[in-house]
Protein 1
Amino acid sequence: MPSLVTWCCLAPLVYVGIRAVQKLFTPGPFENVPGPKPVSRLLGNLPQFFDQQGWEFQRDLSESYGRVVKLSMPFGAKWLFVFDPKALHEIVIKHQDVYEETPIFRTGNALILGQGLLATIGDHHRQQRKMLNPSFAPGHLKEIFPLMLDVIHKLHQALSEQIAQDAPKELDMLDWTTRTALEAIGQCGLGYSFDPLTEHAQNPCGEAFKALEPTIFPMHVMRILLPYIVKIGSAQFRRRLLEWTPYPRLQRVREIVDTMDATAKEILRVKRAALERGDEELGRTVGQGKDILSTLHVQDKLREEITKMHAQLSQDGLDLTYDVLLGLPYLDAVCKETLRLFPAVPFIGRRTQEPITMRLSEPMTGVNGDAIDSIFIPVQSTVIIGIAASNTDRAIWGDDAHEWKPERWMSADSCKTDSSGTKVPGVYNNMMTFLGGGRTCIGYKFAEMEMKAILYTLLPSFRFDPPADKEICWNLAGILYPTVGKTSKKVEMPLKITLIRP
Ligand code: HEM
């Protein structure tokens, strides 16, 4: 006789199975939208779309069908993969409330991160944005810039201590930059230090953040069931169920979330205690591409621009400011081009809250050969925003769209449109990297400042090369991550670092 736990696990599966059979025998609304053939009748294109090394499939989606592509998913579902600029404008700006975050995304984020910006929708989300926006406004970023530089100088110090003159050393730069990013947001956003950034310090929270994405990304089926599973019994009961489930990956997720939760609670405890003490300090303190640096001529050119600015500032007796950093043209071009070609979040899903017609900027050819200039989308449809596909759309970026060329940003007409003249609705330089509209990445200016400050601080002292005997591979996931080789499970990016100037 199956136990209660077994029945609880089977119930959502049975429900989804019945829905799937119904869907398989009902003609879908996207019949005329072209798309790749499913690899399996049961799973559709899911194994290809969520393949960690599925770069070719992703590129095929963006080049072979049209700017809206039909994807077949498990249980008979059909998704639309979209990178048409007008349709993107409707999704992220004009009809943002119709195209909401998917229940899978929201439920997962609520369980892992709590009811924050990545888990809420509608007015609740708007209120949270309103509260948090001032912390990411340019004026505030200028204020916290010296704090950020202090953190990055600690990184510089840590690297300097490990790399002797004339003796290059291989270090895992992903580990160092992850630790730096966590410490930067801790110091600049929370007034809390996570990590002294010294060689041997352990940082469980940083490790947990780094492990999160590679651990949860392969759990597709479980993630699809998540919105149903969270409706079973009480939170206490579900926690027990979780603890009893003999699935090592799920147990790892539990450990990661428990570590992040304990850290968040510790920060709150420290801040509350400081508030109760009326701590004045609190008022003042509360308040992250591919290994492109291996492209040596670019690295040298960038180093030259930065070294000149270092020399000029020290001659004038001035400190580096936010405005000076953001005004460096080649540094800006390198960062923009990297964020265009290697967006950390390559695609993101939305679910329609009501039926809607999506209009396209230019007609595309349907399966029956007719021109399509709009697509009817029923309620509860999944739409994937093709961030990387839009950033490499040849109609906008030209035939060299897939090449990394910082120089493209040095000309006056760098923000291009397609022949219809429709602009991509991205908040950042005609790209979708940080999205646009009401769910724009709140930290995009912070991320830009951090990237530039790290390059500005490290490049005059160090040269970075890929290790001769290791292939660094980028893995597709909700957030891209690097490994050595395609099959490794270890998230890392070893680079050979040479000290140029102490
Ligand atoms: C290169 C670095 C980064 C990239 C490419 C990036 C990209 C994105 C994207 C595409 C979204 C939209 C997600 C969605 O709509 O579902 C997003 C949202 C968000 N990002 Fe970032 N992000 C970066 C760095 C940061 C940093 C440094 C912070 C914080 C300091 C941050 C905080 C957030 C938050 C809180 C949201 C949720 C916003 C909302 O839903 O209102 N991000 N990010």
Protein 2
Amino acid sequence: MDCPRCESALDRYALFGKEAVLCEDCGYLGVTVDHESEPREVESWEAAFERFREGGEERREEREGTS
Ligand SMILES: [Zn+2]
């Protein structure tokens, strides 16, 4: 898999049973999800870990706030 930004080779990491990809050249970070094969860009490692830790996107109310 190559970086979608700069086409360098991505490094792969296992995160809580899923897979994340990181480009050391441009800082691109993506995670793969179960029903998709394309990596999804996320905000930061911290956000990625938080998302995995909470088991998905169920805590998005903290980010969106209003309803
Ligand atoms: Zn890159």
Protein 3
Amino acid sequence: MKKILITGGAGYIGSHTAVELWKAGMEPIILDDLSNSDPTVLDRLEEITGKRFAFYQGDCNKKSLLKSIAEKYKIEGLIHFAAFKAVGESTQQPLKYYRNNVGSLLVLLKFMEEKGIKDLVFSSSCTVYGQPEVLPVTESTPRQEAESPYGNTKKICEDILVDCVKSKMGIRVISLRYFNPVGAHPSAKIGELPLGTPNNLVPFITQVAAGIREKLTVFGDDYDTVDGSCVRDYIHVVDLAEAHVKALAYLNKQENNFYDVFNVGTGNGNSVLEVIHAFEKVSGVKLDYQVGPRRPGDVVKTWADTTKINNVLGWKAKYSLEDSMRDSWNWQKSLD
Ligand SMILES: NC(=O)c1ccc[n+]([C@@H]2O[C@H](COP(=O)([O-])OP(=O)(O)OC[C@H]3O[C@@H](n4cnc5c(N)ncnc54)[C@H](O)[C@@H]3O)[C@@H](O)[C@H]2O)c1
């Protein structure tokens, strides 16, 4: 079985990807320092797959740890999820973000070079596009100056990968630019586990519905969008996880020194109010929300053109917004 090292594999997207890798006949080896995840995810993954995945608790910035994993397993590919992702915190503590998000990529690339590991899938983000002038966003839409250190780490990491491939170090890399990951595994055994106040809309919605938070604020309803609230492309996390499997399969067929980038979204934009109403419809819970002022720095609307990933990787989102809301809600209820 092909062994794939997944950094940040105990986290939200990484844990779902571990399941999809396993379903596709690959064996995930999980490396996570649990800075933003819980060790019980390993038990939950076992409940879903019937397999206890190899797990290393530690920092992927540590070369010695990576080496000891490579001594035990023949690693044939890498998916690098591990990163800090709180945009607000990154503006307060930029060094923490540059060190972890950029520093870890440097360590991993050196490790790949030394061990002759060729294939890497990197977690990038639609944040690199900022507020695009033309919608939907294609992969050739120009990247904009980052709004935050977090966003900048994604841009810098993409640039580092391009330079390494240009230098002919022999690697094959895909950057996946995720739009807005939502939902949870349909089994409700794994999902997003925000520590403290959620930064993202959907965990906030489910926590308000569960009575953990009092009220949801919609930041602005007077934008130039379908109903005045901000618009995003919400992609179910299981669909997103499958995109990593497709990306690895595609990398495997490429020559050395390969780099490409793909948007991962549904191709549809939904407004914040549409998300709220979809949630209310599937859950039967009336949400307590209020409209507040616009939030500085918010992208007004963005959604993906998915033609490239549909045609080249043969991947297409299958889950609807309602599916995402149902699975997020079932996950939230399972936490009670
Ligand atoms: N969730 C989103 O909205 C979103 C959108 C675009 C891109 N991304 C990117 O996708 C990736 C995964 O995001 P997620 O939502 O699953 O986040 P997450 O926080 O749930 O998962 C990241 C995991 O990495 C671990 N980690 C962090 N630093 C580490 C280190 N140095 N060594 C080992 N483990 C470490 C954390 O403990 C966590 O389990 C990140 O790179 C993130 O920037 C996420």
Protein 4
Amino acid sequence: MSDVFDKPLLDAQSLHKHFPVGKAPGPFARAPNTWFGRADRPVPKLHAVDDVTFTLAKGETLGLVGESGCGKSTLVRLLTRLLDLTDGSIRLDGAEIGHLPARGFGSSSYRPRIQMVFQDAGDSLNPRFTAFAAIADPIRRLKPLPREQLWARVEALATMCGLPLELLGRFPHQLSGGQKARVGIARAIAVEPDLLILDEPTAALDVSVQVVILQLLNDLKTRLGMSYLFVSHDLNVVRLLCDRVMVMYLGKIVESGPAEEVFRNPSHPYTRALLSAIPHFMPGQAAPRLRIAGEPRSPIDPSPKVCRFYGRCPQARVACEQSMPLLQGVGQEHSADHSVACHFPITANAAREVA
Ligand SMILES: Nc1ncnc2c1ncn2[C@@H]1O[C@H](COP(=O)(O)OP(=O)(O)O)[C@@H](O)[C@H]1O
Ligand code: SF4
Ligand SMILES: [Mg+2]
């Protein structure tokens, strides 16, 4: 499937986002155990996103999975240019947008091309805006239309997203969860983005509504030819919707590849543990659950030499605390664009033995 997506729409190279945490020593602070000399210890930094590189092709759906706190939302906020990068490059259709300050990005000509669907439509919608005003808002700001055309456009968007037109005059508190989600999606596609970033778009919805909204998102993608970056902790959904998947752990991508391939032959011990936790609906198909012991390492000034999964990894050996594993091709037996960051990746045969 990947040869269809030959030209990258988004090219993210070596993205870093480090948040300062705690205080820098004051101007009169002394170095520890001395009466002289100023403490010049740097401010500790939380490495929320650490050297993340990937591409996203036109028309592709890329899934991003990983446990809470691993950096998914920070990565999304970097890509949507709500946050400034600490370092790295983001190219949209070849144009560098990573260096544009987040503060001014709202008025940049690139803004309409990347839009976002938020986790909780209820929280992200302005309570003082009717559904009509919420959908019209990005059009007014980014691609203004004359009044009559605006009405027609908002109605067309509502219809496309399955929102009955009689609900356009309602405020968020007068809409159900599914209806709010439809408003959030209509709003996101209103300015015809090339890339839609969806941060856990159905996490706040009932299961039955989730299915309908996912179906809607899938239909819209085909109809409008958008690319999706789909963030989810629901691996079943990622498997169904995504062409490729990236697995994130403590700020780093630890495995990436075609979704079917990664789900069939997970090579990173963390991916295997994540996948073993998926509930299987067919009796007899369930693989034994791999539980990860211990706590994640601290994301504050982590050692650049120690694998981030070290300490929790059942496969760990001495080499894992001596050098950081880099993301590289898994090997001939797997698909060419399947990569893993592990010194001792699990091969298909070894995986069968372990299971
Ligand atoms: N503004 C911030 N200041 C300091 N730390 C932050 C900030 N935003 C996120 N973090 C930290 O960055 C890490 C990743 O957070 P986040 O991107 O929200 O993860 P996820 O979306 O995967 O749950 C967490 O340790 C979180 O506490
Ligand atoms: S490099 Fe070592 S500690 Fe890290 S995931 Fe691989 S086996 Fe586990
Ligand atoms: Mg998040």
